[in-house]
Design goal:
heterotrimer; B: about 230 residues; alpha/beta; Rossmann fold; 6-stranded mixed β-sheet; 4-stranded antiparallel β-sheet; 10 helices; 10 strands; about 40% helix; C: about 240 residues; mainly alpha; Arp2/3 complex 21 kDa subunit ARPC3; two-stranded antiparallel sheet; about 5% strand
Chain lengths: ~240, ~230, ~240
């Protein structure tokens, strides 16, 4: 899969099919994992490394933890006297695994495409030009602003006495001031970038060189076969 | 090449340029000096009509006005001080292609222009790289290529050697020396001035206070001292 | 900890058809924002600003502030961007940020993104604009209205999340409200202080125009709708 747009389309459809998978269907979930890992091997990416990295996103799914108490159903086991409902636990585990697989799929796409071609892929999938411009500039300046934040934090640390931790509200205000300084610098940089764009003929319209090679028949076939496989696995009907 | 007459400009109530006037001959390489806040950057921003004050500006036979703005922006290659402002695209290729693309050139021509501009600054190998993977000196070179691809008749550079290490600075000066374009270079770097730019203009508080040869300027210690050009 | 993160709904939490409903709500709002952007005379001027603020929001969200009670939370930034840019532009900026977080970091799902846009951008950012406008009308000091706007906007986002979870049958309204509103209220204190301090710096260094009724009106509509739904859900 070389074509940027189709690669991203395949990733999105994987996520959608994965989202449609009913709760507690462990074999089918394993099927989805297998599909993804075969894809990784075919693309010469190490599944173990991506899978380990994706463990980092599971804390976000902790938000689903209350489900194990709140979903009505027979108790599966007891935790400190509180019943853990069985359907709740199944749902929580499904959410956790889906988030894990989903993150792996997203990262596979990002690692296959790289940032510049990710933008190309988004434009091939028909993202409106205004949003595309915002995404493009955002991707370009993430690292620049991040480096700026690190420099500001170092300067602040170098000046702070740090003998006694200040109260929480004072620290929140300080964090806010850092954010404010960064905001001002970002807006100033936005102004300068605007001038640089204007100097080279920018007029508010998005222009691109004509899109590169169209996807080959083989790539279309691959996309369709993957859809078929995932539909078979999912069978929401 | 450039003729400026009686140019005045103010930000709100603060006068930034006061009756500025000078001429730059075709092919000349001119240094623009002065302490911080003297009005150097504002002057450069007037050359392609980003800022518009009162007075007359003629670039390469074209009077700067609303009707000529697009053509003048193609003629004046303005390179900003911070290359991270100049390079706003995801890849080096797209950045260098930006000017020709927005000038409405056909794709084949854009491609050729990018090739030539990158070759001129010796950065062909960086085509598909993203600007944040480049070193400070490489960023300056690519920033230069982004305007060379527009084939400008005038290069207006704002502090091109600022923040470069000695080796990167040296190779950038060599590169600028080889370029045939007319140049107006705002700088604090007296060593570069002496090597690269035979003519000089000194500004202070929005006025032009010296215009002549670099050799005569550097010999006049009292003038350099008075306008804060030496410490 | 878990409750503080609950504003990014992950995939798998909500049924796919319920996720589609979120997109149906978010899409017209985005279309309105894009249209408002395209109509504004200084569109070309605003595009670089919006791109830069999207990057800013992303980076600023790595800033952690302490929450009374011992945990910490990251700056969310919806209210800050909204009060700095106005509702239409901040809706686009925050949508881009939410989408990229989902795509690059798996933070919040892609299917559930419609609802995440509704909660954080539509409710959070527009609510902040309306409350900021009200504070300005009442001639509150700048620090005070910015604090209140950011704090309440966090609570409004939480409220919207709870209503969705209840509607999707994922979590009963009263339980999730009782769990999340107080917890997010504490987080919101920090967010409010940080937002007010940040805006203070912004107003010192750059010119800021006051919010207009046109910018505040859509937010009031959203807030009104939320309160009606809340009343309906509780009765």
């Amino acid at each position: 899969m070389k074509h940027p747009g189709l690669t991203l389309a395949l990733t999105f459809t994987y996520l959608i099919w994965l989202g449609c998978l009913p709760v507690g269907q462990w074999e089918r979930l394993a099927g989805f994992a297998l599909l993804l890992w075969i894809g990784m091997l075919a693309a010469a990416r190490n599944p173990l490394r991506l899978a380990a990295r994706a463990l980092g996103v599971t804390p976000f799914s902790v938000a689903a933890l209350p489900l194990i108490f709140t979903v009505p159903g027979p108790a599966w086991t007891y935790l400190a006297g509180h019943p853990l409902s069985q359907p709740g636990c199944e749902r929580f585990l499904t959410i956790l695994l889906r988030a894990w697989l989903g993150a792996q799929a997203a990262w596979l796409a990002v690692s296959l495409l790289g940032r510049p071609r990710l933008l190309l892929a988004l434009s091939q999938l028909g993202l409106p030009p205004l949003l595309l411009s915002i995404v493009t500039l955002m991707m370009r300046y993430l690292d620049v602003l991040h480096a700026e934040l690190i420099r500001m934090n170092r300067a602040r640390l170098a000046r702070s006495a740090g003998d006694r931790p200040p109260s929480w509200w004072w620290r929140a205000v300080k964090i806010g001031q850092t954010a404010g300084c960064l905001l001002v610098r970002s807006l100033d940089r936005g102004d300068r970038v605007y001038l640089a764009m204007k100097s080279r003929g920018y007029d508010g319209r998005e222009r691109r060189l004509s899109a590169p090679a169209r996807p080959s028949a083989r790539e279309w076939l691959l996309l369709m076969l993957a859809q078929l496989a995932m539909a078979m696995l999912c069978r929401p009907w | 090449m450039v003729t400026i007459e009686e140019l005045c400009f103010s930000y709100g109530s603060r006068e930034v340029l006061r009756r500025v006037g000078f001429t730059v001959q075709p092919g000349a390489k001119v240094g623009l000096l002065g302490p911080n806040g003297a009005g150097k950057s504002s002057l450069l921003l007037h050359l392609n009509g980003i800022l518009q004050g009162r007075g007359n500006i003629v670039i390469d036979g074209l009077v700067l006005n609303a009707a000529n703005l697009g053509r003048i922006r193609q003629k004046v290659g303005l390179v900003f001080q911070d290359p991270d402002d100049q390079l706003f695209c995801p890849t080096v290729f797209e950045d260098v292609a930006y000017g020709p693309l927005y000038a409405g050139l056909p794709a084949v021509e854009v491609e050729q222009r990018v090739e030539r501009a990158l070759a001129a600054v010796g950065m062909q190998q960086a085509r598909e790289r993203s600007p944040h993977q480049l070193s400070g000196g490489e960023k300056r070179r690519v920033a230069l290529a982004t305007v060379l691809s527009m084939q400008p008749s005038l290069l207006a550079l704002d502090e091109p050697t600022n923040g470069l290490d000695p080796r990167a600075r040296r190779s950038l000066i060599e590169l600028l020396r080889l370029l045939p374009n007319t140049m107006l270079v705002a700088t604090h770097d007296l060593a570069m001035l002496e090597e690269l730019l035979p003519e000089a203009i000194v500004m202070n508080e929005g006025r032009i206070v010296y215009q002549g040869t670099t050799a005569a300027l550097l010999a006049d210690k009292e003038l350099l001292e008075r306008h804060g050009l030496t410490a | 900890m878990s409750l503080a993160l609950a504003l990014h709904i992950p995939d798998g939490f909500l049924a796919p058809n319920f996720c589609a409903a979120g997109w149906l709500l978010a899409a017209p709002a985005l279309a309105w924002a894009a249209h408002a952007g395209a109509q504004s005379p200084d569109l070309e001027r605003r595009v670089p600003t919006m791109g830069m603020l999207a990057a800013f929001t992303f980076v600023a969200q790595s800033l952690q502030f302490p929450v009374p009670g011992g945990t910490s939370a990251h700056l969310q930034g919806s209210a800050l961007v909204a009060l700095a840019l106005g509702p239409a532009a901040s809706l686009l900026v925050l949508t881009v940020v939410i989408a990229m977080q989902a795509l690059l970091f798996g933070d919040g799902g892609l299917l559930a993104m419609g609802w995440n846009v509704v909660n954080m951008a539509l409710v959070g950012a527009m609510g902040a604009c309306s409350l900021g406008w009200l504070g300005q009308k009442l001639r509150l000091p700048a620090f005070a209205w910015a604090f209140v706007a950011a704090w309440i906007s966090i609570e409004l986002s939480t409220l919207a999340t709870c209503l969705e979870l209840a509607a999707a049958g994922a979590s009963p309204l009263k339980i999730s409200l009782a769990g999340m509103l107080p917890a997010q209220g504490l987080v919101g204190l920090g967010e409010g202080l940080a937002t007010a301090a940040a805006l203070g710096i912004l107003r010192q260094r750059r010119q800021c125009s006051p919010l207009s009724w046109r910018e505040a009106a859509p937010g009031w509509l959203v807030i009104g709708l939320l309160l009606v739904l809340l009343a309906g859900g509780l009765v």
